Each structure stands twice: as C-alpha cells, then as structure tokens.
Structure prediction request, 419 residues.
Amino acid sequence: MLRIHQHFPDRAVKDIPGTIAAELRRADFASKLKPGSRVAIGVGSRGIANIATIVRAVVDYWKSVGMNPFIFPAMGSHGAASPEGQAMVLGKYKITEETMGCAILSQLEVVSLGVTPEGITAYLDKSAYESDGVMLVGRVKWHTDFEGPIESGLYKMMAIGLGKFAGAQYYHTFAYKIGLGAMLRAVGRQVLKSGKILGGLAILEDANHTTAQLTAVPVETMEEEEQKLLALAKSWQGHVPVKELDILIIDEIGKDISGAGMDTKVVNRGVNGEYNCWQGPPKFHRIFVRDLTRNTYGSAVGMGMADVINSRILPQIDWAPTQINSLTASSPAAIRTPVYFDTDRECLERFLPTVGKHDLSKVTIGRILNTLSLVDLELSENLRPEIEANPNLRIVEGPYDFPVDEKGQMSRLGGGDGH
Prediction:
C-alpha cells in the first residue's frame, strides 16, 4: 500500500463570525421585524464544519439588532424522531443553551401551511410558527438520492427539516411518486408563501470539509440563489483520485458524515444498492465498511450499500433510529445487513476473489477514513502509474505491507480506533 496526500484548494473562511455578521447586515433580514421580535433559528443534524461557531454568530446577530432569538431542531426524523433525541443531536455539536446564549425549543408538533398545487400539505414546527419569523441555517450540497438543480440545502430544510417527523414521513411518501426534487421544490414554495421565513444562511464547504463560503439568502431569490450555490459546491466536490477500484475500504460511516451514512456520490452507489449509478465518480466494484462513527449514535443507515462489513458494527447498532430514519426516507435497502466477518483480514480475503481477477496481485484497493475525508488515503501500489500522473497527489509513505495486525484487524486510518 501507499499512503497518499491529495491536494485540494484551501477555500476556508478566515473569520466566520465577522463574515456572518457582514452577510446578515447586507441582507437586512431584521428590517422585516419590529424590535423585540422572537426569531426561530432552524438548525439541522449534519456534521457541518464549525456549526457551533456559525450558529452562535447568527444568534449574536439577532441579539445585536434587538431581537430575541431561539433555536429549534430542523432535522425531520433524526434523533430517533423524539424531542429529547433531537436536542441531544444538537448538544453533541456543542449547540446548547449555555453555548449559544439562547433557548433551544425541541418538540414535534407541527402546523399546516396549506396545500401545494401537487396536493402536498406543507408543515412547520409549531414553536417556529408561533415566532415572529424563521431563519434557516443549512449547508448547500449535492443530495445522496437524486440529481437536480436544487438538491440538499435550504429548500430541503424547509421541507424535511421544518416538517419534523410527521412532515418528513409524509413528504417522502409523495417523493416516492413524484420524485424527491419535485417534492422539495413544491413544499419549499408553499413554506415561503406562508410569509414565516425571513431568509437563510447558506453554508458551503470545500473538498477539505472546511467552511468555504457563507451567504445570506433572501426569500425573494432563494430558489434561484440556491441553484447557483449548489452548482458552485458541486464544482468543489472531492473524489477518490482514481478511475476505478476493485475494492474501496471505508473505515467508518455515520449520519454525521452523510444522510445516507456514506456519500453516495463519492462511493458511486445508490441508496438501494445500485452499483456505479452516478456520472463523475470512479467505479467501485466492492465496498468494505469497517465501523460506525462515534457521532452516529448507533444509526447504521448506509451499511446496506456495502458488500461486506466487519462484525464489530453489529453490536453497535441502535435499531430504533436506524429503522425510523430508513423507513421515513422510503429507503429500507439502506439498512440491510451485508455479509460480515469478524476480522478485517477475513473480510478482504473472502472478497478479493470476487472481483474477477485470477491474479490477486492485480486487485486494486483504496482506503479512506470516511466520505468527508478524502485528503489522506491509501491506495495499492499497483496504482502507482495513475498516482504519479496526477499532479494533485503526493506519495507520503510506502510501499508497505497491508496494515493488518496479528489479530487480523486494521487501526483506524490516521490512528486510533474511532471509539
């Protein structure tokens, strides 16, 4: 194996609080409200870089203009679809009443906002509805289930996030019939018609998983602006830097990494297990998943996309959130249990012969920590010509024997066991 460093441009925002303050002043969302108004700030459940710093800066802005902000979870069925679970998810990202300096209201009641032309009733968190205005804080990026001009971002938060568990389940049923992209647009437009949304802060990340852009998006141009932001985010997307691999090893998957556990547009799998269904990413013939992340809290959504897993995953699974989230999203295949063995060595040895190569020395292997971490990775030495032809790649170490210890296990890429 060879240890590889992949260079991506550094687009990191240097002053996050200052940038947010300037953006929100520019957008002037506060002009829509009277002093002392209650502002509901919707925050999701993804593992967004610097999310606590970002949300605190939003809270501070609203305080600075004389408003009374509070935070509410905008995360559909995540956190086992319970008020306590959703507050816990925010807490794990260090978003608490103490760190944010404002109240956090977590509950599941919703209010109807009327019916779209497609016949979909739109819903909004009741505590947010009873506020004087709602601001969205969300990351704009590609979605793991479909491709379209709007995918994962502010529109998705207005539908799946603001609608809580009841809305998320109901919307996904419609999405199964008319498509997820069409559903998100329809519900988002209906939510905007309510007049409750003040605007959004769109977060963009670069391929280094750092905060690369923070943009205040007014409701008047939200749909058009989100399309532009998604196109920009896609242009920064990172990939495993080869054309094809026989086996991709992923050290960890989890809901904090991707809604699908692993980013389908990095691993080139569909949530129903379809192989190599996206244009752009490399082809991967087999996927081996070694573990769950600590911050997925037992949710094993995504393991159904793997071909083989280490059995260490099984006792970690909390089937309640795993099943709730998968069934709410109408993707039961994403939680199927793949073939599993007790050691990393056995997982590999059993699957090396399944890729159609009699000479196993020609089997190509790649290894990443997770689908957000694509800077430091391992590639098998038989890929050296392709590696050396890529100016963005540097061989840091190797070649060395495959890193399996006397018990047949590998340590987590970058050190530690992740737990």
The chain has a mean pLDDT of 93. Residues 164-178 form the longest helix (15 residues). Residues 16-235 form a domain with the Rossmann fold fold (CATH 3.40.50.11440).
